[in-house]
């Protein structure tokens, strides 16, 4: 793959609808071609430093990574930190955005990404928090080769879509996650219990946001390492 041709950074996917994505590709010389594409879906804090770091680490494994600007139809290129003011702004954006429009924009990004240099056409969708819910809803509606949800919120309210997913999926959640009640976590686990290649992983002592090393109050190294290994294993199997 000639990385000089790869569209690094922010790119417009659909100018008429103001759809944008932040893209990261494999490092030159590390891989002849990516094994597939990862659609990466943000928390309420936007395509911020944490999401860009995860995207870069996935690109180092040989994948094309496209980070959807989920809030883009409300406010473009949101990039928040973790102060109380940032949290309030993130929650306000979550209340204002349209999930249906976000899913439509995600699909436009995927169709665009499938034609990027070196793409093999395979796709995994990975999301966090609200992005974790969107990842599962996307996989239920569109063709995917794998879906990974990290502490996706309100998944228990979308069980019909959850059961409609026909690709391998993983749902990762901390046992100390106060945004996902234990009974809701159990509902999700029960819903996928009869599905082929579907797993719910819980992590003792882990809170909401445990996968994000930039959130010092939530990051859990042991949970991160276990979840990361499971995710990478799934991607390697699914995106060859």
From TrEMBL:
SUPFAM superfamilies (UniProt xref): alpha/beta-Hydrolases
Record-annotated Dienelactone hydrolase domain positions: 29-237
Pfam families associated with the record: DLH (PF01738)
Gene Ontology MF: a single term: hydrolase activity
Keywords of the record: Hydrolase
InterPro entries: AB_hydrolase_fold (IPR029058), Dienelactn_hydro (IPR002925), Dienelactone_hydrolase-like (IPR051049)
Keyword check for Hydrolase: yes
Gene3D superfamilies, alphabetized: alpha/beta hydrolase
UniProt-recorded name of the protein: Dienelactone hydrolase family protein
